[in-house]
Amino acid sequence: MKHVGVFDSGVGGLSVLKALLGHLPMEQFDFVADERYLPYGDKPQHEITDRVLTVSNWLRNQGCKAMVMACNTATAAGANQARAVHAHWPIVGIEPAVKPASMMTRTGVVGILATTNTVASERFKTLVERFDPLAKVIAQPCPGLVELIEKSPLPRADIEALLNPVVAGLIQKKADVIVLGCTHYPFVADIISDLAGPGVAVIETGMPVAKQLKSRLESEGLLWCKEPAADLLDRVRFYTTGDPVAFKNKLVNLLGDEWAGASIHFLTI
Questions:
Q1: What is the pLDDT of residues 214-251, one digit of tens each?
Q2: Which 8-state DSSP code applies to residue 229?
C-alpha cells in the first residue's frame, strides 16, 4: 500500500486532510507542513514555486502514489511546474470555489477571502474571468490571518478584530456568498459566518478536493480497496520543517484530542 502525499505551508492543509480521511476511508497519507517557510501567502512567487518542487520531489521519492497540494497559494504558484516535472504522477491542486459560489449567489456578488499571492496570481485571475458573466467576484486579501490561525490556542478575539472590517466590506458590496480561498480559513469559518450574518453562505473546498482525488485514483487504478488501518493514527504520517512540538499542539487544537498520540517527524528539506 502506498500513501498519498499532502502538503501545505502550515496547518491549513489539515482542513483538507480531514475531508480526505472521511471521503477515502481506505487510504493512508503523508502530511508535510512546510512551517519553516510559513506563510507562503506573502512570499515572492519564485520562492513558493521552489518550495513546491522541493516538497513534491521529496514526497515522490518517499514512494507516494499521488500528491494533494492542500494550499491555494502553492497551487497558484507551482501546480503547473510540478505537473511538468512529475509527468504521469497524479497531482491534485486546490483553488477557490468560484464556480459553485457563482451558482449560489442571489445578489450576483461573490466575495473571496484569500492570501495576497493567491489574489495576485494569473491562475486566480483566469479563474475569476471564467465565471465573471455569472457573478461579480470581489477578491479580498487577508494579510496576517494565516499567522493568527497558526497560533495555539486560536486567538479568537484577534482573529475577529482582523476579519470584522474585511467581512463588513464584502457585505456592504452586497456579497451573499463568501468563498474561503485559503485552506487555513475553514478553521475560522464560524467566526466569518457570525460576522457575515445568516443570509450569507460561507463555502470551502476540502470535500471537492477529496472527491477529485478519489476520481483521479480510480482512473489511474490506484484506489486502495482493502481494509483500512484500524487506528486513525496509523493512517497519517506527519512531517514538519518547523517545530514538531508546536505542530503537535496545533494539530490537537484544530483536529481534536484523538490526535494527541500522533508522531511528528522533523523534516530537513
A1: 999 999 999 998 776 668 899 999 999 999 999 999 99
A2: P
Cβ 110 vs Cβ 179: under 8 Å = yes
How far is residue 237's CA from residue 169's CA, in Å, rounded to a whole number?
A: 41
Q: Quick one: CATH architecture of 98-204?
A: 3-Layer(aba) Sandwich (3.40)
Known catalytic residues? 71, 182
* Same fold across 4-94+207-266 and 98-204: yes
CATH class of the 4-94+207-266 domain in this structure: alpha beta
Q: Dihedral, CA atoms, 184, 190, 195, 197, nearest 10 degrees?
A: 130
The number of beta carbons lying within 10 Å of the beta carbon of residue 106 is 10
Query: Is the entire prediction scored with pTM above 0.90?
Result: yes
Rounded-to-integer distance, Cα 256 and Cα 251, Å: 7
CB-based contacts of 27, cutoff 8 Å, min separation 6: 3, 4, 20, 217, 223, 224, 228, 235
Q: Which residues make Cβ contacts (< 8 Å) with residue 61, sequence separation at least 6?
A: none
